[in-house]
Design brief:
It is a single chain. The chain has helices spanning about 5-15, 15-35, 40-55, 55-80, 95-100, 105-140, 145-155, 155-160, 165-180, 205-225, 245-270, 275-290, 300-325, 330-340, 350-355, 355-380, 380-385, 390-410, 415-430, 435-460, 465-470, 470-510; strands at about 185, 190. By secondary structure, it is mostly helical. The radius of gyration is 23 Å and the shape is globular.
Length: about 500
């Protein structure tokens, strides 16, 4: 049920000069990072986490919401004009977006993506306002065992986010847990893995770990590629209005609503994200179409499905984060880190202790969505020029900003050193095909599991029986088991298919 008073309070806290400025700034930067291939909205969030530390909570939330909305939407620019998805969330947009650009309809393709991105995001925000408070109200009944089981379920995302090699994903997740254990232990306050280094008493700075392993690691990986590749040729376009008629708009509305619901559902499921939802929505739209043979040739239907779904996933992923403290994807995991820096712990108690901040999130997302459609339409030609900026200029600039952000956290050169260490570590992880996302999940969620387990064992005199006597705890343990089972089955199936393809290729060579 809508709480109009709280929603009005959320808008009041954001509709200030500072709030509007940071939403606009975040949306602008997010669009740029989303549009430039090799970067993403998540990298932008990781880069701006140090900035949020110095801001008021409602202003930092406004900034991050702008980065999230802009980052997801910006990918359609390069997807349409270059046939290169700026982010994985816009991969499905290339199927019909670039063919439209090739035949001179780039403006129509961009306009379609902008409008249905806006509608998909708006629908997901209504679902967030409806579902998250009800889910959090139910979760207020949770105790230490229930929170521990939720954290265990969240940690199973490591398996689903491991990519092709689950073992490497699990190793990466465990390393994140180990990194988080450095410093003073919870409950008994015993120093762990500090090796006599005073700066490690408080553990590794959250900013150094997140910004280093994710943003700086991505910069280093891009720097290893060709020194100054040939600048891509960006397609030119003309656009009047949004490039399509009202009849075409209403024709696509059922497709938009269906794809948005898919995006919301996928977003609620931890560990899947917009990179999957846009492809699922595209496939469903094609299967449901009266003319499936036209998909891939350049039609509005494919762009509408992909862009509605990936923007709807943003609101869907916020539901488990706010209500249960479970990050649904990399961006929400980084948002969890930013909120932790502010001393705010997402979860059921957030709706009791900081209800105003929850509705600030709702208001910020809606305003950021409006900023997105205005900026994407009004500043499209400017954003397009950024695609041709040399990475030899872009990447060093980002690296300098990372160092400034790390130092500004505690005014310690030690944090800059750790930023470099984790940057190299993140680059090595990617070089040897170890996913970085499980590292972030393990680093953030692992300590939550440990703290609640130790607290629960103290309250139960060392017995684990209360965990199995709680229906809620058993439910989340079952979900965790199912999540691991599905991930293992998927990995084994992919391995069998690869082996079968290898055997067929070998037999073909023998026949020759």
């Amino acid at each position: 049920m809508f709480n109009f008073a709280m929603i009005a309070e959320g808008f009041t806290s954001v509709l200030t000069p500072a709030g509007l400025f940071y939403i606009a700034l975040g949306t602008f930067v997010g669009i740029i990072f989303g549009a430039v291939p090799g970067l993403s909205g998540a990298v932008a969030i990781a880069l701006f986490i140090p900035v949020t530390y110095t801001l008021e909570p409602h202003v930092s939330i406004a900034l991050i919401m702008g980065l999230m909305m802009g980052g997801v939407s910006g990918g359609l620019i390069s997807a349409v004009l270059l046939n290169i998805p700026g982010t994985a969330a816009s991969f499905g947009t290339t199927f019909d977006g670039h063919p439209m650009a090739d035949r001179g309809e780039a403006g129509k393709a961009l306009g379609t993506g902008i409008v249905y991105s806006f509608i998909g995001g708006l629908l997901s925000m209504f679902s967030l306002v409806l579902i998250a408070p009800a889910l959090a109200k139910f979760a207020l009944k949770f105790g230490s065992w229930e929170y521990f089981c939720i954290a265990v379920f969240a940690l199973t995302m490591v398996a689903s986010l491991s990519g092709k090699n689950m073992v490497k994903g699990l190793i990466s997740g465990c390393m994140g847990f180990v990194i988080a254990m450095v410093g003073i232990a919870p409950v008994d306050f015993t120093p762990r893995f500090t090796f006599g280094i005073l700066e490690l008493q408080g553990g590794f700075a959250l900013i150094s770990v997140l910004t280093g392993s994710f943003a700086l690691g991505e910069v280093m990986k891009n720097a290893k590629k060709s020194r100054d590749p040939v600048k891509p040729k960006v397609a030119t376009y003309k656009i009047k209005g949004f490039g399509f008629t009202m009849k075409e708009f209403f024709t696509q509305l059922p497709n938009c609503i269906r794809s948005s619901l898919i995006g919301i559902g996928v977003g609620i499921l931890p560990g899947i994200g917009a990179s999957t939802s846009n492809l699922i929505a595209y496939s469903v739209a094609k299967d449901s179409s009266k003319y499936p043979e036209r998909f891939g040739t350049g039609i509005m239907d494919g762009i509408c499905a992909s862009e509605s779904a990936n923007n709807a996933t943003v609101g869907g992923a916020m539901i488990p984060l706010l209500a249960l403290g479970i990050p649904g994807d990399v961006a929400t995991a980084l948002l969890l880190g930013a909120l932790t820096l502010q001393g705010i712990q997402p979860g059921p108690l957030l709706f009791v202790n900081n209800a105003g901040l929850v509705y600030t999130v709702f208001a910020s997302m809606i305003i950021a969505n409006v900023c997105m459609i205005l900026m994407m339409y009004g500043g499209m030609r400017g954003f397009v020029r950024i695609l041709s900026v040399s990475k030899s200029v872009l990447m060093p600039t980002i690296m300098i900003l990372c160092c400034v952000g790390a130092f500004s956290n505690n005014n310690r050169a030690f944090d800059i050193i750790m930023l470099g260490v984790f940057g190299i570590y993140g680059m090595l992880l990617q070089k040897f095909d170890f996913p970085v996302t499980p590292l972030i999940i393990g680093y953030i969620v692992g300590p939550i599991a440990e703290q609640n387990l130790r607290r629960a064992l103290i309250l139960s005199d060392g017995s684990i029986l209360p965990m199995f006597q709680s229906p809620i705890a058993l439910f989340f343990l079952l979900l965790a088991a199912v999540s691991v089972y599905l991930s293992v089955r998927k990995t084994l199936r992919a391995r069998r298919e690869a082996m079968a393809a290898g055997r067929l290729a070998a037999e073909g060579e023998e026949d020759i």
